[in-house]
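FORM 12-B: Structure-to-Sequence Request
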């Protein structure tokens, strides 16, 4: 089935949300307007971006449930702090909603001049992200700012949106406002949107140009795992850098890993970044594995990225080789998911063998049932 309308709407929502988060950064972080004890700008950006995306989704597909990272409980409190936070969020979301329509956008999506919403409408939009998820039916998945730490550092973060149907990701869009269009030219143009629809390939579009033709992206076909470059979290508290380093050595890799925040890493893998030979996405828990893992992965952190990589010729699995299951609820499961390993289809098995060896070396037994 075609998801043309879903794709167009998702692209517009993510592009508008990227404009919103960039403006939050410029006004609140770069200008150093933060005062001690102020609510972090990322909170303002998270809530406002989820309000915007959820408003557009609900207007266009009113019966689709939404799994969103944020909820508005904190914004509904009757305190001076909540009131001020709420007012900033309402103003930011309405600014983004009421921007004039550009090419390919439709007034039927509830956006454009004069379409501002009330505070109550916007809080309800945020709370519509409370769906519990599950195996059947359609659902949207929003991570309004993925990689909050990168956002605050002025480095990589991503606005992420996916449509899941019967546990399978069908549409994925990732907006990366700070990502160079070409990673080997860090001083060149910045700001990429990645988009994939199942069966239709993976594409990159410059964020700055709504009308430019999307470029098809693909993982370079290689079977030589020693030429790959690791793509892993910037934060050593989010994913084990030491296990990654062991795996990298086992594969004979000599290049340094690329460390960056957010699902921008999936975009880099999909477009073949890393010394021309492509990359490997590695995300293994800092401690424990499976049922004893230190962190349970959320579906909004992997849904669009996994589809993007698959559509670019890659395979995404956990450390055992199992596919990620997006039908277990809001998370990938406690015990069901053993980290994430993604690579081109010609090297993924070889990478998994090294993962298994490294984890066994750490006393963690990994076998595919
Ligand atoms: N302790 C943790 N372990 C793993 N991931 C985490 C942890 N805490 C937050 N995250 C999430 O990890 C993701 C960032 O990915 P990466 O580590 O690859 O940059 C984000 O979704 C972030 O949430 P958030 O969306 O709130 O930023
Ligand atoms: Mg996230
Ligand atoms: Mg987030
Ligand atoms: Mg968060």
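FORM 12-B RESPONSE
SEQUENCE OUT:
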């Amino acid at each position: 089935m075609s998801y043309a309308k879903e794709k167009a709407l998702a692209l517009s929502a993510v592009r508008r949300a990227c404009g919103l988060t960039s403006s939050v950064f410029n006004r609140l972080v770069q200008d150093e307007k933060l005062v001690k004890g102020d609510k972090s700008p990322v909170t303002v950006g998270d809530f406002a971006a989820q309000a915007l995306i959820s408003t557009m989704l609900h207007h266009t597909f009113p019966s689709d449930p939404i799994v969103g990272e944020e909820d508005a409980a904190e914004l509904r409190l009757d305190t001076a702090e909540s009131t001020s936070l709420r007012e900033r969020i309402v103003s930011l979301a309405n600014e983004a909603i009421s921007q004039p329509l550009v090419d390919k956008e439709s007034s039927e999506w509830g956006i454009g001049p004069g379409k501002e919403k009330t505070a109550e409408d916007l809080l309800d939009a945020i709370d519509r992200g409370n769906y519990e998820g599950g195996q059947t039916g359609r659902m949207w998945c929003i991570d309004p700012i993925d990689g909050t730490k990168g956002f605050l550092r002025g480095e990589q973060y991503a606005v992420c949106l996916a449509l899941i149907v019967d546990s399978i990701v069908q549409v994925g869009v990732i907006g990366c406002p700070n990502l160079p269009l070409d990673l080997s030219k860090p001083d060149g143009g910045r700001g990429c949107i990645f988009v994939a629809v199942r069966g239709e390939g993976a594409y990159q579009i410059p964020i700055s140009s709504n009308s430019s033709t999307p470029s098809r992206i693909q993982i370079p076909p290689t079977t030589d795992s020693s030429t790959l470059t690791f793509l892993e979290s910037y934060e050593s508290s989010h994913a084990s850098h030491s296990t990654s380093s062991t795996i990298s050595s086992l594969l004979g890799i000599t290049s340094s890993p690329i460390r960056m925040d957010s699902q921008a890493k999936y975009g880099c893998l999909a477009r073949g970044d890393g010394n021309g030979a492509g990359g490997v996405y590695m995300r293994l828990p800092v401690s424990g594995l499976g049922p004893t893992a230190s962190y349970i992965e959320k579906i909004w952190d992997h849904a669009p990225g996994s589809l993007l990589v698959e559509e670019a010729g890659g395979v995404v699995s956990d450390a055992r080789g199992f596919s990620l299951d997006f039908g277990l609820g809001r998370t990938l499961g406690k015990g069901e998911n053993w980290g994430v390993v993604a690579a081109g289809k010609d090297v993924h098995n070889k990478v998994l063998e090294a993962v298994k060896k490294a984890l066994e070396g750490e006393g963690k037994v990994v076998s595919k049932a």
